[in-house]
Amino acid sequence: MNDTQVLADLGAIIAREPVDEVLVALPLRRRRDLIEKIVEVCEEQGIMVRVRTDLFDLRVARPQVDTIDGVPVVTIRSGPEDGWQLAMKRIIDFVGSAALLILLAPFLLLVALLIKLDSTGPVLFRQERVGLNRRRFKVLKFRTMVQEADKNQVLLETLNEADGPVFKIKKDPRITRVGRFLRQFSIDELPQLINVLKGEMSLVGPRPLPLRDVKLIDTQWHKRRFSVKPGLTCLWQVSGRSDVSFERWVRMDLEYIDTWSLGLDLKILLKTLPAVFRGSGAY
Fold first, then answer.
1. Distance of CA 62 to the CA centre of its chain
2. Bigger pLDDT: 166 or 63?
3. Sequence-separated (6 or more) residues with CB below 8 Å from residue 137
4. Quick one: which of 216, 265, 257 has its CA closest to 77?
5. What are phi and psi of 64, to 5 degrees?
6. Contact at 8 Å (CB) between 47 and 19?
7. Four-point Cα dihedral 147, 150, 152, 158, nearest 10
8. Cβ–Cβ contacts within 10 Å for residue 141, how many?
9. How far is CA 267 from CA 47, 238, 260, 262, 273, in A?
10. Distance separating the N- and C-terminal Cα atoms of the chain
11. 156 falls in which pLDDT band (50, 70, 90)?
C-alpha cells in the first residue's frame, strides 16, 4: 500500500468513526515522511497521535521522552535515574556495611584463623574486578584457594563448566578444605563489606566480574551491567547462582537495573540469607 492510499484510508476512517487517538507503528527510519503527514492529518482533526519508535532496543536502553526548550527529545538512561533514592542507597550502603563489619568482627577473625591454620598464604585474596562505568578496583575475599591459583587457571581452562565468559569448576582442585566450606555459604565474600564501605561496591547490585571474564564478553548489551555499582548480593545470587546460565544471569542484572528501587534492594537482601544457607549453585 502506497503513502497516498494510507493517508486516504486514514482520512476516511477519521471522517466515519469517532477516533480518540491514532497509534503509528510504522518503521520510523524508513517511513518518516509518511509519519509526518499522518501527524499533520490527526493534528488538523484534534486527534492525539502516539508514534511507536523502533530506534531503541529495550534490552540496552530505557527511553524516556523529555523536552528541552519545547523540543521533544528521547533521553536514554543506562542506569537508575539520579535522585534521593540513589543518595539514600549510598547512605544505607555506608551505614549497613560499617555496622555489619563491627557486628561480624569476632566471626571474621575466627574465619581468618581457620584459613591460616588450614593452608599457607595470606588470609585475604585481592583481585582486580570491573565496577561502575568499567572502573577497575581491587575486590577483597577470604582466600579459598592455594597460592598462585590465578596463575594455574590457564591450565584448567579446558575443564570450565560454565557457559559464557565466566570460569567455574564444581570440583576445582585449587580450593582448600576450609575454602570449600567458605564458598558453600558465601562466607568468602564478607570482606567485600570493606569495598562497600569505600564506595566501590553496593550491598545490592550485579556481581563484579574479573578482568578475564569482561574481556571475553562479546555481546554488547551485556555490558550495560556496568552502568551501576557492583554489589555484594543480587538477583542472580538469590536465584541459583552458578546453576544459572550466563545469559539468564545478565538478563537478571538488567532486570534489576531497569526496575531498581529501594524496595527491590530490600527484597533481595531479605532473600539473600535463606539462599546462602541453602548453598545452591555455590562452587
1. 14
2. 166
3. 128, 129, 131, 195, 200, 208
4. 257
5. -140, 130
6. yes
7. 140
8. 19
9. 43, 10, 11, 9, 11
10. 59
11. confident
